[in-house]
Amino acid sequence: MKCVVVGAGWSGLAAAVRLSSHGFDVTLLEAAAQPGGRARDVSWGDRVIDNGQHLMIGAYQQMFELIRDVGQNPEALFDRSPLNLVIHSSHYPSLHLNAHSAAPWPLPLLKGLMKSLGIRDFVRLLRFSSRISYHLKNHHSTVLQWCQQTAQSDRLISQLWEPLCLATMNTPINEASAQVFARVLKDSLLTKRAHADLLIAKRSLGSVFPTAAIEYLKARQHEVHFQTRVVSVRCKGNKVIAAETSQGEVFDCDQLILACHADQITRLLPAADQITFNHYPITTIYLQYPADSRLTTPMIGSSGTLSQWLFDRSSYYPGLIAVVISGPGPHMQISSERLVEHVCAEICLLQPQMPAASLESKVIREKKATFACTASIQALRPASQTSLQGLWLAGDHIAHPYPATLEAAISNGISCAQAIIKTAQTVSISQQ
Questions:
Q1: pTM metric for this prediction
Q2: Are residues 383 and 363 in the same domain?
């Protein structure tokens, strides 16, 4: 059976690899010059960096499985460290989330939070956590409403819930889905100690999976085409039969997966399957300091500043720091030069051992980095199967419990492939 996959991001590649492993004839079409989607390689002088710093944790089980499927060893590709997170604030004492104690999980996490917060705020935190099960089943509340319903203090909102919400969902707390946030908290912090581990890639994410996936597909004689933009879907009746490109090429198929950006998918879908999402930006500032410069921990949070999260990428390039600013804000109106100066000054206040200025810098602004994960989003995210026979959708915006993450993208790509495999098996049985 012939399958065309449109989009060589992590979701499209996940679908293509899974279909290949089940004997499908796969053709991969990608509009860009390289694979990876929003986790692709970017050249910066003699460095190869990610187009944005991604937060990855031990709960990303399907990501690890997929990396193994293409012949890579994920344990060798990531620095994995137990949860040891400090969130600084200009108004409150630093907040500590860590897994240092050998006590059963999540007692070490709760112990560190109680020590940082004091009894009153810790009781408020427990009240908030007691509503996780409720919000997993209800999709009408925002994270801010959840905070207000459980009488969270200004400190808890500004120093804990808002930073975690922005880091995981890239959506302001007054809009973000409480249901999705509840799922993130449950799976990352409250299930297993190892699920809360922080993963930082030792090299670019493009070389961790996308490049290996392309090599995997080519080694199995599948067609891979870059700089090939699909502009229309051809049908015969209610059945998809081909994808047509801007160069006039036609790729015949039995099954077609659209695994590209939501905006492009919308242009290719029939009216019955139209989807509309709002999107929010992510800004990543890469700062190259002297090679011996280090943060005190691999990841540091900050509230009340433009800089939200600092990542030490020294295992990749010694002295390299990535600063992430999620969502909209005043930083979008600041020039890259001024933004770098401002962020370097904030780093000096947070980490006095760091130099006053970086040697080099690169600012990457992804204006439509992720969909806005609002309170109503779970009712809007489409299913993988469309109204047209043989037309499927994949990507982090397709129906899934998680927000726009690499794990959601991979999971949806694999699920889409599995649905096609099941459909093919059903057709085969009916023809016997």
A1: 0.95
A2: no
